[in-house]
Amino acid sequence: MKQVSVIILNWNGADMLRRFLPSVVANSPEADVIVADNGSTDSSLEMLRAEFPEVGIIALDRNYGFAEGYNRAIAEAQTPYTVLLNSDVEVTPHWLEPLIPFMDDNPNAAACQPKLRDYKNKAMFEYAGACGGFIDGLGYPYCRGRVMSVVEKDEGQYDGAPASVFWATGAALLVRTSVYNEAGGLDERFFAHQEEIDLCWRLKSRGYGVYCVPESVVYHVGGATLNKSNPRKTFLNFRNNLLMLYKNLPDRRLRAVMAYRFLLDYIAAFQMLLSGRPADFRAVVKARSEYSHIKHEFDEKRRKNLEAATVANIAEQKPRSLLWQYYVKRVRRFCDIK
Q1: 148: which DSSP letter?
Q2: pLDDT band per the 50, 70, 90 thresholds, residue 1
Q3: Cβ atoms of residues 247 and 190 within 8 Å
Q4: What is the pTM of this model?
Q5: Residue 91 forms beta bridges with which residues?
Q6: In angstroms, rounded to a whole number, what is the distance separating the alpha carbons of residues 189 and 180?
Q7: Rounded to an integer, what distance in angstroms lies between the CA atom of residue 248 and that of residue 260?
Q8: Does residue 227 have a pLDDT over 80?
Q9: What DSSP designation does 325 have?
Q10: For a pLDDT cut of 70, what percent of the chain falls above it?
Q11: How far apart are CA 235 and CA 232, in angstroms?
């Protein structure tokens, strides 16, 4: 039996699979490579059976989104480790070799990621995860190699030993299968966006480790399934970020953080409106409204998260505001954040 299942979630992505799946098959001999199909209506399944007979298929009956789609697929995994791999990722030779021994040698590690570089400009880090993620006290995520929208060139500045991070990217996320299931997996109500940060927050608060292993390198297209400026993505990012905060922040911090976020979210919304993006403005307003209407549906998850927490202060959750650092202090590199 192999140690790891590499699961690629697909929805109407036959061309993307044809383009990137060969690198995964060729460079992952120690893994079972599986495509979980989210009810595609294109030729994905026919293409897989004809061109990649060695790849396993989990055919879901409809599009369950990123979170539930992966939860359903990972429920069928029989290996100690599972990799959630985006369909637009090109992996490199031996990419799994640093990851699996690291997890074997560190039983408290629940998840890790490789270094993500940009497929379109391979000298640069990739926005979605770069070299491991952090979060500030108000819930704004950033990465080693990416602060807000500014992405750094990879010059080896974050190489070396595996680094403890707050969150690992869902684009290429290796998880300990049993711990993933024990923690409840990805929150299916999120559908897509920030669900991996929410999962990692749960893992970190329960005392597990999350790491970036920069010896492993993959290349991510990014934005392949939902354009970065798409109002749907704006809505999901704002709504899910607020839900994540509600689910995980301790009582002593929740009210103050949410008061700040109310102000900052509407400032962001009006900036979008003034810059000629009315659809994104409406998306933020809709996200705030939906959060207010549904947050108490997450009360039970919040209670369970807080009860299961064993770590009061997570070191990789930085107290200083990222927005202050970026807009006032003009910080553009992770290494300059105080």
Answers
A1: T
A2: confident
A3: no
A4: 0.95
A5: 218
A6: 17
A7: 17
A8: no
A9: I
A10: 98
A11: 5
